[in-house]
């Protein structure tokens, strides 16, 4: 039985804390409070929610701290291995950077990023940001499009908030220096994408994410209250237990360049670490998207929701169909933005037969889940490896003006998109599920907020509407500022807190031996490919109960084989290395997806199963994954820290 774990009365790190309440319409009775977390229902009681009970996590408590060690001032790093900040932000995409810029007005901020600061899903977002900026458009219309695309699993209050506040968030970006395309009339050029009834996509050619990231990053790097720590991999959140309450106090990271563990202690932590595209072999996500945030949060007892809804973008560039093939395999699939179809692009099979009108009256402008399944059906029926997306009937100058990045990439491989169709195939793109968040980005873990793809806010429901992702990130990053600031101001840090958790130990050739390290690395890479293959074959666009059960069994066997090898060769619970920790997170996220998919006995949005091919109104409720007993938990589902409360008293 899934349940949260109590380890007795343990005074938390914070002198006082501010509690927040989740919004009512999506989570009737689902209350986020500093003292208790009693009711985890999202609609009308947890017993009626879809519950996935297979994935376990556990968090032990931390004992009472000496009053003399408290301080109540804004503080920065004090040593190379331990750093103290008012706010810690994990992730440097649009959500993390936008939040950092606001909370930096109130205190010190550490932005932790796994690679270079610009290497995020934001930077790869081509299409744009959706917002009601045209007089002919309306918030109600944007809401309706969002809820239809989300198969009516969206939370209406969240949808209204995001669609209402979106235009102001766009204006803020422009004021900060973000440059978007304008039409001949001098107004913002608004594009249309699949699922949208109006033109409402603000964009910078086909490189919108890159432009937003540039503007935000420039502001962050110029802010004296913000410190950016690049090449720091987040290992695990630091938490304590106070009865049923879990409290977050920061994060352990691995400096990838120096191979040292660096601990960040903070009053407030924002998780904005992006998605988990690399649980699949083909994804539009950069290499950093290995589900680190979702996995850390799950291990730290955060509630996870709707992980079965994995969005496969219908149109990633199919390298097999290019006249000149890439010399090396891509690290991530090259995205062909939704806006190509929004601008009139037509999908054909290899016999040059247009097929989308057969599947949906909206044809190429149908939501992504419909288009991806239609392409998948064509490929399987015709035993072909890709389809064609043709925009060449449009004026050459307009194609090159709207899609310069796509045109350039295709031309490198001998294809002129102004004259030839583009070979495309679906690829994993976006996680609609994630860490359950309230209307202010709050979670059930005190001191932990979430924003961006790592969060499940209720906006996307069972399928994300095109260009709503950057919008959601901007809105929730901004909404999390006030409660975060209030919590920071009412909280005191403990200088000795850092030593209340044992420190992770970095695996080295000296500690394990060069031969062992080499074997572990080779096996980890092999297992990663095998896991991705299992997910694509059994947990892809079209699913079945038999295939999901097979995936669950194969993943368990694969994980057991990998973990057994590690621990038989000197690995221990607190030993860390980049590749191993990423593998740990990939396993965790894959299991969350499979468990959630098995729990949903209907086909809705992105989750299509042949055993339950229809939408069931009685099933129109979110999937919830609660923390559970650690007795059967694998390494991927356990926090590194396993400290008994009594040992620290």
UniProtKB/TrEMBL annotation:
Any Pfam family matching the protein: Succ_DH_flav_C
Residue stretches making up the Fumarate reductase/succinate dehydrogenase flavoprotein-like C-terminal domain: 528-613
Domain FAD-dependent oxidoreductase 2 FAD-binding: from-to ranges: 87-470
Gene3D superfamilies: FAD/NAD(P)-binding domain, Fumarate reductase/succinate dehydrogenase flavoprotein-like, C-terminal domain, Succinate dehydrogenase/fumarate reductase flavoprotein, catalytic domain
Swiss-Prot/TrEMBL keywords: FAD, Flavoprotein, Oxidoreductase, Pyridine nucleotide biosynthesis
EC code: 1.4.3.16
InterPro entries (alphabetical): FAD-dep_OxRdtase_2_FAD-bd (IPR003953), FAD/NAD-bd_sf (IPR036188), Fum_R/Succ_DH_flav-like_C_sf (IPR037099), Fum_Rdtase/Succ_DH_flav-like_C (IPR015939), NadB (IPR005288), Succ_DH/fumarate_Rdtase_cat_sf (IPR027477)
Pathway listed: Cofactor biosynthesis; NAD(+) biosynthesis; iminoaspartate from L-aspartate (oxidase route): step 1/1
Molecular function terms from GO: L-aspartate oxidase activity
Cleavable signal peptide: none
Functional description taken from the UniProt entry: Catalyzes the oxidation of L-aspartate to iminoaspartate.
Membership in a protein family: Belongs to the FAD-dependent oxidoreductase 2 family. NadB subfamily.
Descriptive protein name: L-aspartate oxidase
Upper lineage: Eukaryota, Viridiplantae, Streptophyta, Embryophyta, Tracheophyta
Gene: BnaC09g42780D
């Amino acid at each position: 039985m899934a349940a949260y774990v109590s380890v007795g009365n343990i005074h938390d790190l914070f002198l006082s804390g501010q509690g927040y309440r989740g919004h009512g319409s999506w989570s009737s009775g689902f209350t986020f409070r500093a003292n208790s977390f009693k009711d985890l229902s999202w609609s009308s009681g947890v017993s009626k929610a879809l519950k996935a009970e297979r994935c376990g996590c556990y968090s032990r408590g931390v004992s009472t701290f000496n009053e003399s060690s408290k301080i109540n001032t804004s503080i920065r790093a004090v040593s190379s291995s331990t750093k103290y900040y008012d706010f810690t932000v994990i992730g440097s995409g649009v959500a993390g950077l936008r939040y950092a810029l606001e909370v930096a007005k109130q205190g010190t901020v550490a932005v932790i990023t796994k690679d270079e600061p610009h290497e995020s899903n934001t930077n790869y977002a081509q299409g744009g940001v959706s917002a009601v900026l045209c007089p002919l458009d309306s918030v109600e219309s944007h809401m309706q499009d969002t809820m239809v695309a989300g198969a009516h699993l969206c939370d209406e209050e969240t949808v209204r908030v995001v669609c209402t506040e979106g235009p102001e968030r766009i204006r803020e970006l422009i004021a900060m220096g973000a440059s978007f395309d304008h039409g001949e009339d001098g107004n913002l050029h608004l594009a249309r994408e699949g699922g949208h009834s109006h033109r409402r996509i603000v964009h910078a050619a086909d490189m919108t994410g890159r432009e937003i990231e540039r503007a935000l990053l420039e502001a962050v790097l110029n802010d004296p209250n913000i410190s950016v720590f690049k090449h720091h991999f987040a290992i695990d959140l630091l938490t304590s237990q106070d009865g049923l309450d879990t409290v977050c106090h920061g994060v352990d990271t691995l400096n990838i360049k120096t191979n040292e563990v660096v601990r960040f202690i903070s009053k407030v932590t924002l998780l904005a670490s992006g998605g988990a595209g690399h649980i699949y072999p083909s994804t539009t996500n950069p290499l950093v998207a290995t589900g680190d945030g979702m996995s850390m949060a799950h291990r730290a007892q955060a509630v996870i929701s709707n992980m079965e809804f994995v969005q496969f973008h219908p149109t990633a560039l199919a390298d097999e169909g290019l006249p000149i093939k890439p010399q090396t395999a891509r690290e991530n699939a090259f995205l062909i933005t939704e806006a190509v179809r929004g601008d009139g692009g037509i999908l054909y099979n290899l016999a040059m037969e247009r097929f989308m009108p057969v599947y949906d009256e909206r044809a190429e402008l149908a939501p992504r889940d419909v288009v991806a399944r239609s392409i998948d059906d064509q490929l399987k029926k015709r035993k072909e490896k890709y389809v064609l997306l043709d925009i060449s009937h449009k004026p050459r100058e307009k194609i090159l003006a709207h899609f310069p990045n796509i045109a350039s990439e295709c031309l490198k491989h001998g294809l002129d998109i102004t004259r030839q169709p583009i070979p495309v195939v679906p690829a994993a793109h976006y996680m609609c599920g994630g860490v359950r968040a309230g209307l202010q980005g709050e979670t059930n873990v005190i001191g932990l907020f979430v924003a961006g793809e790592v969060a499940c806010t209720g906006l996307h429901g069972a399928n994300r509407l095109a260009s709503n992702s950057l919008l959601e990130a901007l809105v929730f990053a901004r909404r999390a500022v006030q409660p975060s600031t209030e919590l920071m101001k009412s909280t005191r840090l403990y200088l000795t807190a850092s030593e209340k958790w044992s420190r992770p130990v970095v695996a080295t050739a000296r500690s394990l031996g060069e031969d062992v390290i080499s074997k572990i690395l080779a096996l980890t890479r092999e297992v990663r490919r095998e896991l991705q293959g299992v997910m694509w074959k059994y947990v892809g666009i079209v699913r079945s109960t038999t295939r999901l059960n097979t995936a669950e069994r194969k993943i368990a066997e694969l994980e057991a084989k990998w973990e057994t090898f590690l621990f038989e060769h000197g690995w221990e619970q607190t030993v860390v290395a980049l590749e191993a920790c990423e593998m740990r997170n990939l396993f965790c996220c894959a299991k969350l997806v499979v468990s959630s998919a098995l729990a949903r006995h209907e086909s809705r949005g992105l989750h299509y199963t042949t055993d339950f091919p229809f939408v069931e109104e009685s099933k129109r409720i979110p999937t919830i994954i609660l923390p559970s007993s650690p007795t059967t938990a694998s390494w991927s589902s356990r926090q590194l820290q396993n400290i008994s409360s009594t040992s620290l008293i």
